[in-house]
Amino acid sequence: MSTGSTLLITFDGLRRDRATAELMPNLARFMAEGSNFVNSRSIFPSETRVAVTSTMTGCPPGDHGVVANQFIHPVRPEGLFRTAEWEDLELAAQAGQLLDRETMGQRMANAGRTMAVVSTATKGASRMMNSSAHDLAQPVFSMHGAPVSSPDLHEAVLARLGDIPEPGAPNGSRMTYATSALIEVVYPRHNPDFCVFWMNEPDMSSHRFGVTAPETQEAQRICDENFGRILEWWKAGNGPENILVMSDHGQITGRRQLETLDIIPAEFGRVAIGSFSSIYLDDRSDANKARVVDWLVQQDFCGLVFVTGENGEATAGALPWAAVRNNHPRGADVGFTLRATDCSQSWGPTVDSCRFAAWISDGGGMHGGLNRGELSTVLAAQGPAFRAGFVSETPCWLPDIAPTILTAMGLPLDGTEGRPLVEALVGEDPRFGIAPQVEIRTLQAEHRGHEQYLRQWVVEGQTIVDCGWTAGTGAWDR
Fold first, then answer.
1. Side by side, which strands form the sheet with 252-257?
2. How far apart are CA 351 and CA 240, in angstroms?
3. pLDDT at residue 1 in the model
4. For residue 359, which of 243, 250, 212, 257 has the smallest C-alpha distance?
5. What is the pLDDT of residue 310?
6. Is the pLDDT of residue 477 over 90?
7. pLDDT-derived band of residue 478, with 50, 70 and 90 as boundaries?
8. What DSSP state is assigned to residue 425?
9. Quick one: signal sequence residues (predicted)?
10. In 351-426, at which residue ranges do the beta strands (DSSP E only) sit?
11. Of 351, 387, 386, 357, which Cα lies nearest the Cα of 371?
12. What pTM does this model have?
């Protein structure tokens, strides 16, 4: 095994404040004994495929180009580009318009290192964990089989473990099966320098039953038990040098479903409605953007609004796309979140709520916006590259994960926008063990009594969003 070899484990949709010793004792112990990044955050929109891509490129959406779970893309001019669908991603890949930045898979191949993926997530999310895996002959095992899985690895897993269990909520049988595939097949066959292991819980159960529901707690317990199996296997001398654990986003409670998805006047242009919603205007002039924002902030569903003028000019009632690091040419002309509770002072799994668009029941979990419960994530690491018993209060986010792993491996970071978390690293590099200075600032916009706020951390010149909220006529209780 090469220097800095790493297994990256993801608990999809796990809020940091739900990673407790009561609910997930193995994870809580791992966090306490290793390097624990207590101010870790997701990206915006806090959606899975955007988060996966940001993690695997070390860049925010404004650089890599996957700007939302669904958006308008030139390869599907007649409808929405759906990142959950393999076919849509393949269309973009064939056109050379899937990603604008190198992935960890490409970096491993360029350095002569190996990579593998084991995923229980959707076809699209699994692909974005290593979008060029098949071209690079890097193994993938997915519950979906071909074309997501590598055929030879898929057959090897089935030969060893039998048929893949049917999905469920909680999805415990698949979590256990995937764990067995990781430690019994993938590592013995491939011994990868970098491996991604993705559990799609507690996200699945949170959506269906709610963030604090007994079923979601059961999903967490099952994930934690399987994490304990991995730790026991690892501590016996198997697998990589380092284990890094993360979640891609949190969840908050969906309250007050929109009566219809047809909430934007057709005259504005094409739309994608969700926790994060986007409008692609027919008339992209600054004057029309201002007109659309003026209409939006008067609607009872509207949360935070994002617009960038033609020359970077500010628009009354909106914040600039650059403030959330999602200023990509494929992005929407106008974006907005659905209204959510004020998380600036008080927040928690029983407090945070949001309006929601569709496909969950009232009380189910939701994510995509800027509430702190959606953005606050788990991030912790153990192994020879990381300090033991270390609590880092320095803010960090998903794009910092790849640069940290690459630094532990001694590989270049060219093209990444994230920051290696040197304050937690061990070694002779003079940067290691030193935390950078942090500035806190709050951006705001107000129009017609609708107030919006975005709290940012500035770390070495780069901004990370802590959270966002609305007030005034945009307050949740109005």
1. 353-356, 252-257, 365-366
2. 39
3. 56
4. 257
5. 85
6. no
7. low
8. B
9. none
10. 353-356, 365-366, 379-382, 390-392, 396-397
11. 351
12. 0.97
Between CA 79 and CA 76 the distance in angstroms is 6
Per the omega criterion (within 30 degrees of 0), is the bond before 74 cis? no
* C-alpha count within 13 angstroms, C-beta hemisphere, residue 57: 25
* Greatest distance between any 2 Cα atoms in the chain: 64
> What stretches of 237-385 show up as alpha helix (H) in DSSP?
286-296, 372-375
Which tens digit of pLDDT belongs to each residue from 87-127?
Answer: 999 999 999 999 999 999 999 999 999 999 999 999 999 99
**Ordered domains of the chain (ranges, CATH):** 6-252+372-424 (3.40.720.10), 254-368+439-472 (no CATH)
At 342 the pLDDT is 97
Give the span between the Cα atoms of 248 and 244, in whole angstroms. Answer: 13
Q: How many residues does the chain have?
A: 478
Rounded average pLDDT over 407-415: 98
Q: Other C-beta atoms within 10 Å of 6: how many?
A: 25
Q: Using alpha carbons only, what angle is made at residue 269 by residues 91 and 478, rounded to the nearest 5 degrees?
A: 115
Helices and strands: H and E segment counts in the chain? 14, 22
61 — pLDDT class (breaks 50, 70, 90): very high
Return phi, psi of residue 144, to 5°. Answer: -85, -5
Q: Which amino acid is at 211?
A: V
Residue 339: both structure tokens together: 């209204």
Identify whether the C-beta of residue 258 lies closer than 8 Å to the C-beta of residue 435: no
Cis check for the bond before 214: say yes or no (omega within 30 of 0): no
